[in-house]
Amino acid sequence: MSNETNLPPHKRKLLLLAALMSAPIVLSYLFYIWGAPSASVNYGELIEARLLPEIALRKTDGATFGISQLRGKWVMLMVDSGACDEPCRKKLYYLRQVRLTQGVEMERIERVWLIDDGKMPEAGVAEEYQGTWLIDAKGSELLKTFPAAVSSHDHIYLIDPLGNLMMRFPRDADPSRMVKDLKRLLKVSRIG
Asked: Going by C-beta distance under 8 Å and a sequence separation of 6 or more, which residues neighbour residue 114?
């Protein structure tokens, strides 16, 4: 057998070195094409951030309310009727439980219920979800700022500590996935 087909040792070393140096580039390209991870890790849908307008409203107890009162806190917000049917009660429950699961960080989170029809919630509902800001928003321009495919009643919205509406959770949201999103945001946030 002839040695004419074998490469000299210095050329073999050069080829081996070139293969080792190009391997990460080739592998990353292949991973990008066939194994790219999903575009995001969050469950909630990121929406174009928009500063909520400062519109004077009233809490259900008659006190004045402006969204700026909640600046510096993360806000989970829902829009629904004061009659509060089963899906409404489920959202209120999720607001409370998702906040509670944050442990010591829960003080950084507020809960808001914008009542869009002027109906007063039953006393039992208000007591059960004590700590939730109950806001009479009937006819308010603020209600028009919450994007929804069908109805704003379908979502739980998230407002950042600067007052920007920035995320919404889907109808019949999975609370355990909401918890993960909020935990991640609280961990990386330097404000609120």
From this structure: 77, 78, 79, 80, 135, 137, 140, 142, 143
Query: What is the CA angle 36-166-62, rounded to 5?
Result: 155
> CB of 48 within 8 A of CB of 146?
no
Q: Residue 187's closest CA among 96, 102, 95, 76? A: 102
**How far is CA 44 from its chain centroid?**
4
Distance of CA 47 to the CA centre of its chain: 9
183: region left, alpha or beta (phi > 0 left; psi from -120 to 50 alpha): alpha
DSSP 37: P
Q: How far is CA 137 from CA 3, 10, 86, 161, in A?
A: 88, 79, 21, 21
Q: What is the pTM of this model?
A: 0.80
Q: What is the DSSP string of 93-138?
A: HHHHHHHHTTGGGGGGEEEEEEESS-PPPPHHHHHHTTTEEEEE-T
What is the rounded distance in angstroms from the CA atom of residue 91 to the CA atom of residue 88? 5
Q: How far apart are CA 179 and CA 97, in angstroms?
A: 9
Per-residue pLDDT tens digits for 67-99: 999 999 999 999 999 999 999 999 999 999 999
Question: In this structure, what token pair is assigned to residue 29?
Answer: 């390209």
